[in-house]
Amino acid sequence: MFTCKSNKNGEIKTKYISFHAKKEDILACDFISGPKRSQLLNEFELNEKNLNEVTFQYITLKSNHRIILFAAYQITTLTYKNLKITEKKGLLKKLLSLLLSLKFIRILILGNIIRNNKPYLFYDEDALDKSEALKHIAEISEELAKKTCSSVVIIKDVEITDDKFKTLTSNGYIHPLPDMGMVMTIKDYWKNLDDYITELRRKYAARARKIRNNFTGFDIKNLELKDIEIAQPRLYQLFLEVVNKQGFYLTLPSPTLFAAFKKNSDESFQVEGIFYEDELVGFYSYFITEKELEVFYIGFDPLLNLETSLYFNILFLVLEKAIKLKKEKLILGRTSLDAKASMGAEIIHYPYLIKIKNLPSFAIQWFIEYFTSLENNHWKERNPFIENSDKIELDITRRY
């Protein structure tokens, strides 16, 4: 615990920062609605139990014994296993692989490590303005990084306007690369997938129909909790098939995650199994909110995917589900941007800032270039809809 003093309206107030707060302290944050507090506590508990590679730290800032700021941090460790460096040639990459094999890079994250748009910074706007809150967060993050021996601090999902940006950049934070995902707007007059396909330009419509025609002999089943528990090893195996094809992952959840989310999220979390000849060959999971359907983790058999375009059919299946549920947005996540752009999704930028310390400059530069060159950050701007047929479709690959 340490103290900080502020002078506001001519009055000196002492504030107490506790690094030993508990997740249950969220319930005492009277500036957050009651239902939201309960939801967050449930979310913290689920993450703690099902993210085995992550540790959790909760921070409170009090004034006159009342909490006026609550922050939830997640801490994970980066090793050579998280990046596919060893599969690439070159002396520099081998040196980096050696560096990661010798040094564990601890990462301190303010935010939800497995979901976007889930900020974990909360403060009383009557007691603190945003600049004050960010200044406190910079101080807290610096101290917590020292306590946890973290070389990297990431502040994510906190909207930072230009005038507030300087509060953190003056403390060494940077924004080296955009963090991008894909979102698709659902037309309110679409009743089914056919309505969507009829609005596509000819080549995109033909491609969609061909992909859907390949998807014969499959059964889709909504998995209840007991189904998920029985299928847990297979679900996780299919999930890892997808993860192992990616160039990077920050952390892996435990195999129990899907059942835990299903058990504790009522009807807001769903898992759909894809069966072929009575065998589970794929799945997709998603969260349902009032206006959105947010795709979560997916998995599928890679060999069957080559024959039947399983991945593209999963994209169409979640789109169809969003249409049937009359949602306004389909949140598709940050992987395979080009595939999602070709179905009509558009880029969305997720806010974040990062601070890196105690790493060689050549390693920092290489990491930035590595993430820039990842396949998922290469995408082509698409105009698949007839209504956009007057726009030129760019064949130039955008790099971020």
Write the element-wise H/E pattern from the N-terminal end onward: EEHEEHEEHEHEHHEHHEEEHHEHEEHEE
Mass-distribution shape:
globular
| CATH structural class of the largest domain | Alpha Beta
Query: What is the number of domains?
Result: 2
Oligomer: single chain
Helix share bin: 25-40%
User: How many helical stretches?
Assistant: 12
CATH names the topology of the largest domain as Aminopeptidase
Write out the CATH superfamily name of the largest domain: Gcn5-related N-acetyltransferase (GNAT)
Rounded to the nearest angstrom, the radius of gyration is 23 Å
Mean pLDDT: 86
From the N-terminal CA to the C-terminal CA, the straight-line distance is 41 Å
Profile the largest sheet.
Answer: 8 strands, mixed
Count of extended strands:
17
Describe, in plain words, how this protein is organized in 3D.
There is one protein chain. The protein is of the alpha+beta class and 400 residues long. The protein folds into 2 domains: 2-173, Gcn5-related N-acetyltransferase (GNAT) (Aminopeptidase, 3-Layer(aba) Sandwich); 180-350 and 376-399, Aminopeptidase, CATH 3.40.630. The chain has helices at residues 34-50, 91-102, 130-148, 162-169, 193-197, 202-214, 225-243, 257-264, 302-308, 310-324, 337-341, 361-373; strands at 2-8, 11-21, 55-63, 66-78, 105-110, 121-123, 152-156, 179-185, 218-222, 269-276, 279-288, 292-300, 329-333, 346-350, 352-356, 378-380, 397-399. Strands 1, 2, 3, 4, 5, 6, 7 and 15 form an 8-stranded mixed sheet that branches. The protein has a 7-stranded mixed sheet with strand order 9-10-11-12-13-8-14, with helices on both faces. The chain has a two-stranded antiparallel ribbon with strand order 16-17. The longest helix has 19 residues, at 130-148. Mean pLDDT is 86; it is low at 394-400.
